[in-house]
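=== Structure Prediction Worksheet ===
Name of assembly: unnamed complex
Input type: mixed (protein and possibly other molecules)
Chain count: three
Listed entries:
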Amino acid sequence: MESQFILAIIILFIPLVSFVGNIFFGKRLSRGGDWFSISTVGIGLLLSVILFFQMIFDYTVPEMADAQILFNWVNLGAFKIELGLLVDNQARIMLLIVSLVSFLVHIYSTEYMKDDPRYSRYFAFLSLFTFSMYGIVISASLFMIYIFWELVGLSSYLLIGFWFEKKSAADAGKKAFITNRIGDIGMFAGIMLITSHVGSFAFSEIYTGVADMNTTILTIGGILLFLGAVGKSAQFPLHVWLPDAMEGPTPVSALIHAATMVAAGVYLVLRIFPILTPEAAMVIAYTGGFTAFGAAIIALTQNDIKRVLAYSTVSQLGYMVMAIGVGSYTAGLFHLMTHAWFKACLFLGSGSVIHAMHHALHKVGDHETDPQDMRNMGGLKSKMPKTFWTFLIATVAIAGVPLTSGFMSKDAILGGTLAYAMQNPAHLLLPVFGFGAALMTAFYMFRQVFMTFYGKPANEEVHQNVHENPSTMTIPLIVLSSMSIFVFYAFGKGFHFNFAHGWFQDLVPVPHNLTQSMTGFLHHLEHSIHVAHYPAMAISVVIAGFGIFLAWLVYFKKKISAENMATKMALGYKLSFNKFFIDEIYQKRIIDPFLWLCRKIYWFDYNILDQKVIDGFGRLSILGSKVAKTFDDVVIDNWIVDGFGRATLLIGRKLRRLQTGKLQQYLAMAIVGVVILAFLEKLM
Amino acid sequence: MFEHILTWLVFIPILGMGAVMILPSKKHDWIRWTSVFVTAIQLILAIALLMNFDRSEGAYQFMEKYEWIKAFNISYFVGVDGLSMPMVILTPLLMFLSIFASWSIKKKVKGYFMMFLLLNTGMMGVFVSLDFFLFYIFWEVMLLPMYFLIGIWGGPKREYAAIKFFLYTLAGSVVMLLAMIALYFKTGTFSFLEMQAEVANFTRGFQIIVFLALFFGFAIKVPIFPFHTWLPLAHVEAPTAISVILAGVLLKMGTYGILRISYPILPEGTVWFAPMLAVLGLINVIYGAMCALAQTDLKKLVAYSSVNHMGYVLLGMAAVVGLQQASPEAAQAGMNGALFQMFNHGTITAMLFMLVGIIYERAHHRDIDGFGGLASKMPIYAGIMAVAFFAGLGLPGFSGFISEAMCFIGAFPMYTGIVIVSTLGILFNAGYFLWAYQRIFLGKFNEKYNDIAEIKTFEIAYLVPLIVVTIFLGVYPQPMLDLMKNTMDSIIEMVNNPVTLSWLP
Amino acid sequence: MNLQLMLIVSAALFSLGLFAVITRRNAIGVLMGVELILNSANINFIAFSRSGIWNVTGDIFALFVIVIAAAEAAVALAIVLNLYYNFKAINVDEASELGG
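=== Predicted Assembly ===
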């Protein structure tokens, strides 16, 4: 076995060790066993970095066969389930993302979760999550992805509901798990559909095996598989769980619900990209575009600092999905990576603010005010400089300002979308979605910055008590925000500077072993991208600037009153503020009727099926036995059997008249009888 | 040493029952430990059997055959193959563990354990019999102690539940008896092996009729919709350990019977019925899950989850026709998945019922909405419950996942639509388990349970083996599949190409 | 002697006896009727034994009948006596205890 696989196996299983250790012995270890989790994740990070730089130095795109090992987990002769490791460039990049964010979140959590009574369990769950996420990243078969997919869902459930005493947290955990399961069902159906034709679960087999599949079935299979991503990456219509998931501890939100787990859906779409038909890809693109646009609208009006970020995440994930849908494979993964850094930074930054607010409120004895509501903040810039500056850098990056990573990746996506629309003008809506979302992103992100860090503090006393957090919390912020600077992505082979075409574009090419129709399509797309690239860049810069400017006018200069705008566009504001009432619609139109149906079915089961039908048979047989008993008593016994007795009695009673007791009569009768007999004999 | 091991396995509990009978009825501990000892020996024997079982072989092993009633060609004929082996392991395991779950039985302890051991013999007998008559006798032997165990040691509505269980099952057995006699007159033998050799003489109509008759008997046991309504009631009323056995072992006798008798002996009937079986599986999955969602009684919820989970088994079993439709891997996946799911459901559901019993002993009710926030008071119990619930909802890493997945994958090529709809079952599965979990353990702590006791080490001890088995098989299922796959292959072969095989040893 | 004549006498005697047995209310009278019947039989025995081949059997039977008739009369008289004790009458109509 080659070294990369050994490293990958170690990376995969080492967090499992700390999970098991901390679950069973965490409380008995010093500091609740956090050092144990951190060290295992640290080892994982080290090995991931090794794998990453191996890739950078090799600077080649490995053949699939060289990058994977497979083994049969289940082998029944004809039926096999293959699991395996696929350590290609995409996996190496993802490994680095997961391990670095995970490591920083671990460090950050030591401060953030310091006084929690279930401290060691928290770290155990974090380790479990890290394990599951690694599993998705390096799996070489659809089945293995599905396994870890579910495990990620589990750890997400456990971490969202970590403060389960709060009903909202428990609800959110359940909602996340179940909403994800809806997607998983589709994904599982897709897996079955594909593998029942291909006969294998391994990607390498599937990529080559789908060539002779019916295109319609393949399209359906692709869309079904994509459903898994819809669930995990919170795409419309299954996005509802992600904003609620903010009930979890903020570092968890940063790790799971911003940087890594939600990106798993995108990663899945990347993995199935080679088998997508153009039709399936179009569905994916529209889902992503619509989500990016819709979620951005919702983010405009939210007041909870984490909820804004949550909807922003949904929107950005929509971007990535759209990118893959329009064929910009590389841009999708690129944005996944850049987004992971700046969004993790934003979440950890917001966590830092919340943490500080929480302590300040605690100090002044205020337990009513919501420490997450941005309306209660303001002017924190001077109090928390490190948090502010890192937050600002990440915000600039997400808004797509030049010289940031976000600019590079977003621009690639927008270029791809524009090219797609140029290929087929009927899809003009997609770039509109893309640029519209970009505009709103710039606006709401700077709205957030202005509301949180600028302006007058909402409460002077609280403001006085706000302090910058210790370095265990700020160092991760600094690391993550620095990753948002363009230099990391603007070099090619041998570290030669190349702004437009970095190592990422070289090492993650669009896979070529595709279905027939898609191959031709992508070929045409390639040309359009070159044409569309610069216009897209120009438009996105202008749009980002406009968005920032607007936010500056409204929330910094207060030239335009936000309230006025809200009243002027009452309907729009209401829809946005209430998230288009999607949750309510689900609750009213789907969940409630469904539960009602369940209760009715159970009512039917017990009252009709059991009590009436099944017990009806019992009652019927009791009735039958009563009838039989009556028949037996009346007809058989009373009429027939006793009838014989009665008849005998009656006849006897009649006959006894003959018995007079008079000897002479007897004799006379005897004689008469003899005479009759004599006559009879004569007659015979 | 292994010549008579099956006989020993079957009849050791009867010896134990004799031993318990002569013990003074006041000495509860003696009675309990005798039972523990007896079942422990049985378990050790079963493990020894497993060690000596030849996995590369699909045919029967450890056969014993003695003439019994010569006039009717009835013999005492036992043996195990890959189909019965998992059940032969499962039964003593659950029996052994549920004795500890019976520790809290205080009423008529002696009678309880005697019935318990008798039940054990009946169940083991069913799983090793290779003679239909013997099978039928054990089938009925199992029924009687069950009746008393529910009827005497059960909950408030125990008599109703016990009678219902008894009569319902008996109704099924009567029809099964008719089928058995029909087969006997057709073949002149009761031996499964000899019946299989006569398959060529059965007309299609005969096969269908006999299949339906047998199916009726087995369907009640499984239980398959619409014959399932005795199950929630019996589960709710039965004492913990009996629920464990009922769900863990008894339900498997139904599907075991179909696989052991109907499939090889009535191949045409099977092929004819397979689509119906898939439909019934779908109904079981969806209907059971929806009923479970509506429950407020925790034990009933688990009971309906059994209906739901047995649906997966039916789906997997329906995949047997895959071989005819040029999809041998689907048939393999489905059939092995079904048997594997039978085993896994046994262990997982046993865990669930034991856990429900533990909370019932403390709170004296099972109303899901009557708890709240217990996780903060009893974290270990909540943790174990979470493990059991997640195992139940088919999370990867637990054995239930792989078997459910195999059932689905197996049935998919033949019954695509049905399978896609029934995958909704795994969603509902998650729904009812998580919703129940939330209502019991999460949220604000219910002050009423301020002095509720955490789970005891003793109780953990009898749960741990099940957890270990579940996780082990979930991570590394191949040993179990190796055990069963050759036999399942030959059953698939028998169903699809009945005439080509000669099955007499 | 003429056999026919003898038989006519015997028959007449039998009829008279029978008539007495049926009609007499007095038990003694009934007894006497019985005697008549017996004797009519005796006449028949004798008559047939005379008319055929010499045969002593008939005569012997007649003798037996006479002896038995005597014994019977004794028993019957005893019954009559008991009847009288019980019913204070010897009227056979009175003794209808067996009547249904």
